[in-house]
Write a structure and sequence with these properties.
Length: about 220
């Protein structure tokens, strides 16, 4: 894979709570230089300026997902008004691990319906904290609720981030009907390529420059 091909799959990400406006401006400038698909920042950092062709993404219900659905929906709607073109929401993990998949679907649907149709919704399932059965069920419910992507991880959960196994399972479950975003703990070129090989159609990376440097022009 060439550098530009991988760059087109990257959400260049800065979600540290202490990130300053200057850090976000530097992220945007680097994203434009690298030619990545998107930048992903905290909703409080919106709106962004001077993004050029780089897509603006943010997060919702982050990082725990343990928010009331109406709060997530309001947060997503505000983010869209502030210029977000993509929103990565976190599911309620308690509902997922207890098998309350109707609640998972309703939570996702509330966020989807709160935003304009052109704003993409990515659903963070925190795959490292789920069994294979739970991963499949949650991905199925994300699709039923109208999401455009399923995403492995926030990168903040102690259970860990993305794994090749989870990405393969998620990709197999959504069958190309939804995108699959691998995120969390991907720090090397080899790891990034392994996620793409497993079926990831988008990558959430903070080490984008270093990872792209490992590829030919």
């Amino acid at each position: 894979m060439h550098r530009s091909e991988l760059a087109a799959l990257i959400d260049h990400t800065l979600l540290k709570p202490e990130a300053k406006p200057a850090d976000v401006a530097a992220l945007v400038a680097e994203a434009r230089e690298l030619g990545v698909k998107a930048v992903c920042v905290s909703p409080s950092q919106l709106p962004l300026s001077e993004t050029g062709d780089v897509v603006i993404a943010t997060v919702c219900g982050f990082p725990s997902g343990a928010h009331k659905s109406e709060i997530k929906a309001a947060e997503a709607a505000r983010a869209a008004r502030d210029g977000a073109q993509e929103v990565d929401m976190v599911i309620n993990l308690s509902d997922a691990v207890t098998g309350n998949y109707d609640a998972v679907e309703a939570d996702i649907r509330a966020v989807r319906e709160a935003m304009p149709a052109e704003v993409l919704l990515k659903v963070i399932i925190e795959s490292a904290a789920l069994t294979d059965e739970q991963i499949v069920a949650v991905c199925e419910r994300a699709e039923a609720a109208g999401a455009e992507y399923v995403k492995t991880s926030t990168g903040f959960h102690p259970a860990g981030g993305a794994s090749v196994h989870a990405v393969e399972l998620m990709a197999r479950t959504v069958g190309g009907r939804l995108g699959v975003k691998a995120s969390g703990g991907i720090r090397t070129t080899e790891a990034a390529l392994a996620m793409v090989e497993a079926g990831a159609t988008r990558l959430g990376l903070s080490a984008s420059a270093a990872i792209l440097a490992g590829l030919p022009e």
